[in-house]
Design a protein that fits this description.
196 residues, alpha+beta, 6 helices, globular
């Protein structure tokens, strides 16, 4: 009887350990080389608490409104989604009687005085962060510039809030992003504002 219980406990423990590993491997999730389980969990907490899913995850409509689509976590503006219609002149601007910005139902496309911005693909696919390094990610978050030297990260991206995180936390966020399922999704480039 004791042997049977011990075997049952050993099998259950093995399943608890092996199943998540198997699920991650079969789902296509990439491993974050050199990252510890604790670092990835910390990164997941920071990504969730920081609201990254609000803009970077397409939504599904529920009775309570839009909710993150679990099949497209952090994959950014869907490349096949129709773009927003042209806005009437004068709708967006700095006046209190104008809108500061508008968004689509996914909250992945935004239009404002800066032009049109699209939420980036944060998955480890090559169309997302696949070729990025922790250093490049940190430089981007600290400077508010794409690749740390390119175009500005546009609203509503709160890079200035993320920039205050310490290096260990930024590395944890990156380790988590490199551990999630890669999703191929080429996000459009931002569109500058139209002239007067």
């Amino acid at each position: 009887m004791r042997i049977r219980i011990a075997c049952g406990i050993a099998c259950a423990l093995w399943l608890l350990v092996a199943m998540p590993i198997k699920a991650a491997q079969s789902s296509g999730a990439s491993q974050s080389p050199g990252a510890s389980r604790e670092q990835i969990k910390r990164g997941e907490l920071l990504v969730k608490f920081g609201g990254c899913h609000d803009c970077h995850t397409p939504k599904v409509m529920t009775p309570n409104g839009p909710a993150p689509d679990p099949s497209r976590l952090l994959s950014g503006q869907p490349e096949q989604t129709a773009r927003l219609p042209t806005l009437p002149p004068g709708l967006i601007g700095p006046s209190p009687t104008q809108w500061g910005g508008v968004t689509n139902n996914d909250l992945t496309q935004w239009v404002g005085p800066w032009g049109t911005s699209y939420a980036a693909n944060l998955t480890p696919d090559q169309s997302g962060l696949g070729s990025w390094t922790p250093e490049l990610f940190i430089k981007t978050m600290r400077t508010g510039k794409h690749f740390g030297v390119g175009r500005p990260l546009l609203p509503p991206m709160p890079w200035y809030d993320i920039a205050v995180l310490n290096t260990a936390d930024l590395k944890a966020m990156f380790a988590y992003l490199k551990s999630i399922k890669p999703i191929r999704n080429l996000v459009p480039q931002p569109v500058p504002p139209k002239g007067p």
